[in-house]
Amino acid sequence: MAQKKTRSARKLLIGYLERISSKVFSDFPKELTALVGAEHGVYALYKGNRLYYIGLAGNLRKRIKQHLKDKHAGKWNAFSLYLVRRADHLRELESVMQRIADPKGNKAAGRLRHAQNLKSELEGRIKAEQKRQRARILGGGPAPPARVSDTKAKPKKGRKPSRARKAALAPYVTQRFKVRAVHKGKRYEASVRRDGTINYNGAIYTSPSAAGRAALGRGVNGWRFWRFRNEDGEWVRLDELRKKA
Question: Are 80 and 17 a contacting pair, CB within 8 Å?
Answer without folding.
Answer: yes
